[in-house]
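Cross-posting from the modeling subforum.

Setting up a comparison between two proteins and wanted a second pair of eyes on the formatting. Protein 1 (sequence, then structure tokens):
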Amino acid sequence: MTRMRVWFVVVALVATATGAAAQPGAPVWRPWRPVVAIGGVGRGGEALGTVTISTRAVATGTSTPPPFTLFRTDSSLDGGIGGEAVVLVPVTPVLAVEVTGSAGRRALVTAISGDAEGAPATTASERIDEYQVGGRLSYLLPVGTWRRGRPFLAAGGAYLRQLHEDNVLVEHGQAWAVSGGAHLWVRQAARWPAGLTAEAGWQWRSGGITLADGVRSSPTAGVRLFVGL
């Protein structure tokens, strides 16, 4: 999915929400009353690319000897979990603007093979600290609701910051995501409403730690407790 398609989803949510009325009896947000949520988020692994390290072989009778492979590396970023905080500000009873932030730790794994001197294949890894700060729109769906719960869709983007082990190098990038889930209200009082949010989705990332150009993707999932102010 390209960046244009992600923003198309965001615009579609806004357009739908402006004409949608809250389903009678279903829980809704109180406009302009912030909601704070804290919980955990998990992200799947990502393939970062393969690199072949080569040199020029010595050859007689040619000015351009053929390449000679020294070894190959295949790198990936393991999946991981982290903490997440969300501040949700409802614009209407069903449409909200969210500011999101997360911090977690993952492992960068590199498999080394095909050594020209016959050395056995080996694997190296290092710790990666990952941070994201961004925003998104979320929309409470008018279908599939029940007395204390309501499904939703969300889409948005974030700034990505990844630090190699011991903070020896910092990588920057961008992330976009779409997700769906449900809010479950355990307390629906006018003051201090509270509940649980569970969601799952897909994330696309550019920049950051990578060995090849292009966009990478991985699944995401999260669970949070929320309290209205």
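Protein 2 (same layout):
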Amino acid sequence: MLLFTDVDGCLLNKHDYKYTDALPILQKVQEVKWPVILCSSKTASELTVLARELRLSSAPLICENGARIIWQGDGFGTERSTVCRTHRDAVLKSLRRLSKDFRFRSFTDLKLPGVMQVTDLSKEAAVRAMDREGTEPILWDDDPTLITDFERELMAEGLTLTLGGRFWHVAGGTNKGDALQQVAKCYETSMKRPLRTIAIGDSLVDQSMLDRADFSIGIPTPDGTHDVSISGKGMYATMPGAAGWAECVRRLLDQIHTKD
């Protein structure tokens, strides 16, 4: 079993970035030897630090919503990092052109002080958040009805626009679902047997990952609503953040243990 999880709003609380409520169940997952693959809009710099804190250094990291994969652990060959499809330079070039017709602010526009202000991150954490290779988050300042036109312009250049928990994310045709399949295939090749996948998410940027997993878990937003849909095998948590993450993973562990 491979467990793919979004970070902010799932494994980490949205309001305080804490994961305390998830730790006991995360430890049980590690005891049964399920690899836990962090899959987030966060950068490689950010996820590497978090993985070290959570003692997840033996599993790959899916960064920037699938635009970059860090191949931690053994059995994945000699290449340690993969940038999927489009580099950030191409994304920024398109955004510079579109800034003449639409009003938005990217991380590049905000610069370090602005990113610190809109994210409430420390200087060190904001530097890590800006260390991107395949995507660019933006804040939309224009008429909401124009977002469709903006997305159409991006699609014409082979780019995608996805709404995350706080920012819109511009990427080069990559998504979390593609990355899940790529990582799962590498695990199956390494272990020489088929493996089932679990995906946990809370926002639209997670939907492709939830759709492609064998079992999916939807985490509610802090106000109790759901921004993702779960079909087939899956469940919704009743609580947001780390508490909801722990609730559903505990239930899943109990179900599988009972079947076994």
